[in-house]
Amino acid sequence: MTIKVISVPSAPFSGQKPGTSxxxxxxxxxxxxxxxxxxxxxxxxxxSGQQGQTLVLGGDGRYYNDVAIQTIxxxxxxxxxxxxxxxxxxILSTPAASAVIRKWKAFGGxxxxxxxxxxxxxxxxxxxxxxxxxxxxxxxFTDAVYRRTQEISVYHTVxxxxxxxxxxxxxxxxxxxxxxxDPVADYAELLESLFDFDRIARLLARPDFRMRFDxxxxxxxxxxxxxxxxxxxxxxxxxxxxxxLPDFGGGHPDPxxxxxxxxxxxxxxxxxxxxxxxxxxxxxxxNMIVGRNFVVSPSDSLAVLVANHALIPAYAGGxxxxxxxxxxxxxVDRVARDLGIACYETPTGWKYFGSLLDAGMATLCGEESAGxxxxxxREKDGLWAVLYWLNILAIRDIPADAIVRDHWRRFGRNVYxxxxxxxxxxxxxDRLMDELRxxxxxxxxxxxxxxxxVTADDFAYTDPVDGSRSERQGVRILLDDGSRVVFRxxxxxxxxxxxxxxxxxxxADPGRHEVPTQEALxxxxxxxxxxxxxxxxxxxxAPDVIS
Length: 547
Prior knowledge:
Elements: E1 5-9, E2 23-26, H1 27-30, H2 35-46, E3 54-59, H3 65-78, E4 83-91, H4 94-103, E5 108-112, E6 124-130, H5 139-149, E7 154-158, E8 169-173, E9 176-181, H6 185-194, H7 197-205, E10 211-214, H8 220-231, E11 239-240, H9 261-268, E12 276-280, E13 287-291, E14 294-296, H10 298-307, E15 321-325, H11 331-339, E16 342-346, H12 350-358, E17 364-367, E18 371-374, H13 382-396, H14 400-411, E19 413-424, H15 426-438, E20 447-448, E21 451-458, E22 461-462, E23 469-470, E24 475-479, E25 484-490, E26 497-507, H16 517-520, H17 522-532, H18 534-538, E27 545-546
Parallel strand pairs: 3-4, 3-5, 4-9, 10-11, 10-12, 15-16, 15-17
Antiparallel strand pairs: 1-7, 2-6, 5-6, 8-9, 12-13, 13-14, 17-18, 19-26, 19-27, 20-21, 21-24, 22-23, 24-25, 25-26
C-alpha cells in the first residue's frame, strides 16, 4: 500500500550539533515544534541508499521516548526505509541496539537516549545515529548532519496512526513494515555465547554468594531480570529498581558512588549478606562494580578484565589488542605490556574504539566513565561487564576486592580519581581551558605544589586505521614521577559545561596500596587547582562529584 509523503516547511534551529554521543538537550527543547523532525530529517538527508533498507529504532524509556518513536517511524516511511525493527514499548538498550543492528545486518539505527543524564519532563533527551557496524556515527557523518540542520527548509513525513508498541508483531506504515521485537532476546543470546552461563549459574545458586544489581529504574531492568533472574536463576529480588520509568524514579541513572550510594552502602554493611554488587546507567552501556566495602574503579575494572581474559570462553584464545580513552588510567597499559599486545590511547568517545574493533586491532576497550566493552558489539556494554566479572568470580572463587588487590600486587596500583565540576557557565569553562592551553608551553620544567612538571600538551589523535585526525581532546600534565593530571570539558551535559579533572598516580609499593584514594592524590588535587585556576575562574571550591 502506497502512502502519500507530506512535506512540511521548516527552518533551522541553532545549536543542533551532535556531540560524542549524539544530540542532547532538555526535553523542553526537543518538544518544540519541528525540533526533533528537523534533526531526524537532517540524518535522513545525510544518508544515501536507505531505500528498502532496515532501520533499528529504540531507546532508554525516558520521558518523550514514546512520542519521538512514533514521529521517527512516520518519517522513516517517508524516507523510503523498507523495514524498522523497534523494541517492545520503545525499549532498546544502547548495546542491545548495536547487537540487533549487527545480527540483522541493518542499514543503521536511531537510538533515543541521554545516557546517564536525569530524565522526566524537566530532564534531558537525546538522539544519535548508529552505522551498519552497530557503532556511533563518525565525525564526518555527524558534521555533515550538523551542516544539514543549518540549511534545512522542509521535513518529510506521512499520515499514519500510532503503532501499538506494547505487543510483539508486525504492522505497516504504507509499504514500510514495522516489526515490534523482544528487546532482550537477541542481546541475551549474544551474551550467552560469550560467557560460561552454567558456571555463573552455579555461583549464583550458592548460599554463600549473594549479589544485587541496581538497574536504577533505567533500561537495563528488563535485561537484568531476564538474564540474571531468568536464564541464570539468581534469586528473585537480586535485581532492584528494575522497572524502567520515564523519570528514572526521580533518581539520577549514573552508576557512581554518589548516585548509587544505596548500593555502595549495602555492600559496606555486613548485615546485608551481599557479596557482590553492580549497577548500570540510563541506556545500559555503563557499569559500576562493587565488592564488599570496596568500589572498583572503572580503570581498574578494565585492567582486571584484560588480565583475566583467558578465563572467559569468548576471549580464551587471546586478545588482538586493547584500547582505552586518554583520560582513563594507564593500569591497562601495564597489563597489555605483560601480555605482549598493543594498547591504543584514543580520544573519549566509543566511535574511536569502533574503528579499531572493525579493523581487528583491538578486542577489549574501556573508558574511565564506567564504560567497558568488546568486539561483540560496537558500543560499551554494562551487563556484559557484570557477566564478565561474574564469570571471573565463578572460576577464581575469591571476592571482587581480593581480585583487585591481587591485581595491584602483580602490576602495581594506578591510584585514580575523577573530579567533576558540573554546570559551570560555558563562558567560564571556555576561558579556563583557553587560558590553560595558552600556558602549556611554559609549564614543562616548572615546579608546582612541590611537584615537577615534565610535559604538558593538548592531546591529539591520528586514527591508525583511516588516518583521520582529532585535535584538542584534552590537556595532559605529566609529572616527573609518572603522575598525570588531565583536564577536559565533557560533551554529555545539557546545561552549561562540566569540567572533568582526572588525577592519576602510580604506586608500586604494596604497603601503600591501601592509602585512601583522595589522600594519595592530595598533592595532585592542589596542583590541578593552581595550574588551571579552577577556583579563581569558576568560584568552585570543590567538585560536585568525585568518582
